[in-house]
Request: fold
Amino acid sequence: MAEWPEVPLPEVLDFREGPGILAKDFRDSGVPLIRLAGVKSAVSILHGCNYLDPDMVARKWNHFRLKVGDVLLSTSASLGEVTVVGDSGVDAVPYTGLIRFRPADDRMLASFIPIALTSQSFKQQIQAMGAGSVLKHFGPLHLRQMTVQVPPIEDQRRIMDVIGALDRKIESDRRVIAKLEQLGAAILESALDLDRYALPRWMSDRRLGDVLAVLETGSRPKGGVTASREGVVSLGAENIQSAGVSSVEAFKRVPATFAATMRRGHLQDEDVLVYKDGGKPGNFIPHVSAFGHGFPVAEATINEHVYRVRGVDGLSQAVLYWLLRSRWLDREMRKRGTGVAIPGLNSTNFRDLPVPELQDLSLDRLNASLPALLAAMLRIGTESDRLKSLRTSLLPALLDGRVRVREVSL
Reply:
């Protein structure tokens, strides 16, 4: 039996979904319109935002403006992402699909709201309503039917001390990975001879396929795969975000007997992974990540929608990773994967991607500096995933009384 009472959510939380705003109302500057990318960003809530005319906001959307400490929950696309509004988000407006939460009375601390919204009980209610399955959206109508656990204020503070310590470390890891990602990109760019348009000079006699030792996909059994604790992990589109970063909690797996028969698609340390199929019709969106050092798991295969990529001797996996994640090759992949009914990048087009000119001295410098960054990102990602797993198992125990907050120390 739960230690704390379940209270109808609207009794203790004030919430409002952001407005639906048409693209024609976007401006080049003005009041930030917070998007899902900002909620998910490791750097800034303003990442990927649009802008609105201040006068129009004052007339139509002033009551949607955000305050410090407001909590945002994503309710479509990446369901269940939660972030707290800081100074940079003050007076911004959240877009539709993002719901703003504040305390409705003095029974719940504002700082406890993210814990309530990420609790297992809250997630189970979402699943029970079918949100995130056939319909990828839930909103205020669903929230009015939901409950939240409300401990006494003093216990809220104690739970926040425990979970907050984990959250701060997870957030710190996320920011370090983001900074390492940016540092690697800057090191690569510094080694290239860019023209006045900040574009690299491409090699005239070589293509990407000339510097690859491995380019292959994996497979899965007929009937597909499901989330399970049995078998060998099979990584697919949902797992390809970036090195050290993954939002997936439950991995899909193939039977061990099937994995043993796979001739391709078994992953090795520091394999670069590219999601080769994706986006909307006529708009291919590539994703590049990496595997290894325990991230996202110690052993895995890939399915038929993911490329496993390795470079030839003399080209480190880290250099290959940042090349494929560069804005130049991202643009080239989008061009080659777009224009078909089902967006995707076949192996011929992938091998035909251009390669920037790199002097031997510059390549040696990249091979010496980038591998340590990639390895660090993967190791930190592994640590972060373990902390997330600990948080996931500890929070329900704290909320239902199996673990008393007075008994926990970190």
The mean pLDDT is 90.
